[in-house]
Amino acid sequence: MTTNFTTSSPVSQLDLNSLRQFLLDLLVRLAYSEGDFLLSSGQKSSYYINGKKVTLTAEGGLAVGRLLLSMLPEDTQGVAGLTLGADPIVSAVSVVSAYQNRPIPAFIIRKEAKGHGTKAYIEGPDLPPNSKIVVLEDVVTTGKSAMQAVERLRDAGYQVEEILAVVDRQQGGAEFYQSVGLKFQALFSIADIQARYQLLNNN
């Protein structure tokens, strides 16, 4: 399936509202499927969202990068996420930030410490202690995956107060983040995805 959906302008030139609609359609067409699935959280689900089907395309990566960058607090000094789902997202946001003359470095958080060299959990440039990092995620279910990244970053001496996601499955993640004092925003809820899916498949 091609990702070259028709738009009135190049993805790099779309306004944020048009870009959001473009990304929603990409997610519905490429990342969303219905059936019987077992999630990484251990829960069973009647649908699945494979965000990497979108975030690893040129257009999807650019759209995600532009939209999430627009949501970052002005004082953000870095973006980070737990490997593997967040890898293309943090990279996209960082690259787009350089084009917008607001360079923000990216960090990838390992699930297990590297077995050689520095044996580090965090890959990326060095920032001063207490630098403000925002954690990014592709799809949030319970919220526990991104929380691993938060804990690793805090252990390394960084400030983490907010998590941004592409999709919130609305299965407890937002409530979990609130309970531990973290701000949380998502570009789309699962309700947004499913409503668009029904519309596109009924036409």
From TrEMBL:
The reaction(s) catalysed by this protein are: orotidine 5'-phosphate + diphosphate = orotate + 5-phospho-alpha-D-ribose 1-diphosphate
Biological process terms from the Gene Ontology for this record are:
'de novo' UMP biosynthetic process; pyrimidine nucleobase biosynthetic process
Binding sites annotated in the UniProt record for 5-phospho-alpha-D-ribose 1-diphosphate: 110-111, 114, 116, 137-145
Q: Give the protein's cofactors.
A: Mg(2+)
- Provide the residue positions that the database annotates as binding orotate: 141, 169
Residues of the Phosphoribosyltransferase domain: 108-166
Give UniProt keywords alphabetically. Glycosyltransferase, Magnesium, Pyrimidine biosynthesis, Transferase
This protein's record includes keyword Transferase: yes
Pathway membership: Pyrimidine metabolism; UMP biosynthesis via de novo pathway; UMP from orotate: step 1/2
E.C. designation(s): 2.4.2.10
Q: Which GO terms describe its molecular function?
A: magnesium ion binding; orotate phosphoribosyltransferase activity
Recorded hits in CDD domains, A to Z, give: PRTases_typeI
Identify the Pfam families for this entry. UPRTase (PF14681)
Q: What's the superkingdom here? A: Bacteria
* Gene3D superfamilies for the chain: 3.40.50.2020
Record-annotated membrane-spanning stretches: none
Please describe what this protein does.
Catalyzes the transfer of a ribosyl phosphate group from 5-phosphoribose 1-diphosphate to orotate, leading to the formation of orotidine monophosphate (OMP).
PANTHER family reported in the protein's UniProt record: OROTATE PHOSPHORIBOSYLTRANSFERASE, URIDINE 5'-MONOPHOSPHATE SYNTHASE
Q: In which family does this protein belong, per the annotation?
A: Belongs to the purine/pyrimidine phosphoribosyltransferase family. PyrE subfamily.
> What binding partners and quaternary form does the record give?
Homodimer.
Q: What is this protein called?
A: Orotate phosphoribosyltransferase
